[in-house]
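hey so u asked for the seq, here:
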Amino acid sequence: MTLPATVPMRPDVDVVPSSIGYSTVLRTPQMARLMLATHIGRLPCGMTPVALLVVAAADGATLAHRGILAAAYGLAAALSQPLLGRLADRRGQLLPLAAGATVSAAALAAVALMDSTTWPSTACVVAAGAASPPLESCLRALLPGLLSDQPDALRAAYALDSSAQEGVYVVGPLLVTVLAAAISPTAALLMVAAVGLAGGLTVAASEPSRTWRPRPRSDRDLMGALRPRGMRVVLSGFFCVGMALGALNVAAAAAADRHDALWLTGALPAALSLAGITGGLVYGRRAWPGTRVSHLHALGALFALAWVPLLLDPPPVLALALIAVPGGAFLPLLTVGYQCVDELATPGTVTEAFGWLVSAINLGLALGTAIGGRTHGYHLCAAAALAAAFTLLAHRPKGGTRC
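ran it, structure tokens below
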């Protein structure tokens, strides 16, 4: 079976509310196995930065050097995803998935076995991030073909995938912490390499990935994936969303200092992630009234407004309750964002387009974390979320035929 590389163009029309069971998605042939393997392969996204921090600490690295290693991995992975997506769109998924997983795992294993304070170790970290297989983009390129007989279930599949992806960032750091404490930091990083390799190779060997064939590109424009009207607006909006989430990491630490509650540093981001999983699953289970564009606008506005109460610097327990609102809006917003990118992508660029969205969010996360320390509160979170809402509101397709 040959799977199409893009979703057929669909009108962005009003939809009738109905329930869409996740069992419908998971009963689709190959779907459950493919999603499981993909998320096993994506566990290093949540595990690697923490594993690098503990390995470098064990080697006696300074806090600054530890931060550089974690940031280098994240930035290299973010910047490489569109390029690896383009390779998949031109040559198929086998090369970027199998070769990427192998190179990334080998580079992480090398870091585990050498002194992480040296420059060769830093070079290996960059190589591991740059080769990180584009599992997220490749899976989303496969979903429309797998669900070609059930187009109404596509939103549920995107929501289920996004919610499971958020779980990676909850489970991954916990696994690394347990492994590092129970065995050793080196063993934890080696396990990260093994998990990433197993997941990447399993997806590459799966029937949907092996039989998927890219569509010919409509042109040879190097920036072709960014040319469609609205694509850059959507990507800019999600870059701002990423900034808001990245700034939260620093805002949580600052709030923990102000309220003398160290536990708040990890609890706030975790509460946002858990609320996001819940919100994503609730949103994806049924079709909601309105168009995709109206959903994009409404959820963007809700995400921005939800940060306003936090500007009052509530006490820790109330802050945990309030952070659930932007968390609950985030994954539904991301689900709609993926649908929009899917429909905006020109033939032959769908995997690359998904890679650009992943890159935009991750670069926003990095920048938000980097400059969040200058605000010492939730102000950057709120400002970035407001910028995201206004940017997404500027996306108004003419004629309403495409997202």
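The mean pLDDT is 86. The CA atoms of residues 180 and 309 lie 38 Å apart.
lmk if thats what u needed
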